[in-house]
What we know:
By secondary structure, the protein is mostly helical. Helices cover 63% and strands 0% of the residues. The protein has helices spanning 7-26, 32-48, 58-76, 86-93, 98-115, 121-127. The longest helix is centred in the first third of the chain and has 20 residues, at 7-26. It is elongated. The chain starts with 6 loop residues before the first helix and ends in a 15-residue tail after the last helix.
Amino acid sequence: MYQYKSDLEDKLQTYNKINRANRRHFGKQMNKETKLRIRNITAKATLKFGNEAWVLKKREEQHLEAAQMKFLRHLLGITKLDQEKDQCIGEKMGAQNIVKEIKQYQEKWLQRVQRMDTNGIPKQALQYQPKGQRNVGQPKKR
């Protein structure tokens, strides 16, 4: 049976591939700051592209944070056996939480759409009110 893969899963796969390629090709030849800049330019941009309409569930937020921590752990040379907390690792590198960045980007995008004129397609999509009634019963959990 065909399994639907969400846009987020595709983005996470691409993010991890880019990070693996950076590790494989640049290993210990580059300093940490350069690796972090390459990640911010390529991998993070790939992950954040097209996220304006995402509705992140808790599980998806955890996947995003895990992918970010995996990269930062490798960058610092810290293994899970070292039992360093994710928060400490993020503070050492000065990295902002990827979920917070995505939410900030979504808020900026929403403000941009609200400033658009009413003829713009994004503004029309945002203001769209479907006709009809909702299904009876409790809504599905996110």
